[in-house]
Amino acid sequence: MYLDGLDELDQKIVRLLIENARVSYSDLGEKIGLSRVAVKARIQALEQRGIIEEYTTVINPQKISGAVSCYFEIETTPGSLSEVIDILNGDDTVTQIYRVTGRDKLHVHAVAASGEEMETFLHAVIDTLPGVVSCSCNIILSRIKDIKGLRL
Predict the structure, then answer these.
(1) Vertex 52, ends 146 and 25: CA angle to 5°?
(2) Is 100 buried (19+), middle (13-18) or exposed (0-12) by CB count in 10 A?
(3) pLDDT, tens digit, 9 for 90 and up, residues 13-65
(4) Cα 66 to chain center, whole Å?
(5) What is the CB neighbour count within 10 angstroms for residue 74?
(6) Over the stretch 101-127, which tens digit does the pLDDT of each residue have?
(7) How far apart (Å, rounded) are the C-alpha atoms in residues 106 and 138?
(8) Can you tell me whether residue 114 is helix, strand or coil?
(9) For residue 97, what are the CA distances in angstroms to 56, 59, 105, 107, 110?
(10) CB count in 10 Å sphere of residue 64
């Protein structure tokens, strides 16, 4: 469904990369019946079109001793939204920022090394954001399901 805009070979490449982004061009070619050079060219084209954005290592903060992961729902006045986004975007504790519909304007994910570090982030950053109408915070206790990117 989501891959309808790609031809059959590109769909196969994307599915295999989602399973293992570290697979070699040769192994991909072997699985889909293309040469290593042809696979590399197709992947580069997918990257240039922005379909493949990045290859990364995903760290689970719950598996790191003492790490605290929280989601914030932040409602701001319209005039302060861009300034709030700039402040949050510049903070290393913040890992994701989403502009959302509804009463809350921003959905923000933050990860701190400890409860004390998260509390410092709350007091030094969240509590001082300009134009905040409301803010709620939810601590993540466990990750049950977490799909990165596209669901196939």
Answers:
(1) 105
(2) exposed
(3) 998 998 889 999 999 999 999 999 999 999 999 999 999 988 887 777 777 77
(4) 22
(5) 24
(6) 987 689 999 999 899 999 999 999 999
(7) 14
(8) coil
(9) 18, 17, 10, 6, 9
(10) 12
Phi first, then psi: give them for residue 144, nearest 5 degrees. -95, -45
The angle that helices 8-19 and 25-32 make with each other, rounded to 10 degrees, is 130
Question: Element (H or E) spanning 108, and its range?
Answer: strand 106-112
Distance CA 6, CA 12 (A): 10
* Closest to 51 in 3D by CA, of 106, 95, 92, 3: 3
Look at strands 94-99 and 68-76 and give their pairing. Answer: unpaired
pTM value > 0.90 = no
State in Å, rounded, how far the first CA of the chain is from the last one: 7
> Beta strand 68-76 with 106-112: parallel, antiparallel or unpaired?
antiparallel
CA-closest candidate to residue 69, choices 125, 128, 142, 129: 142
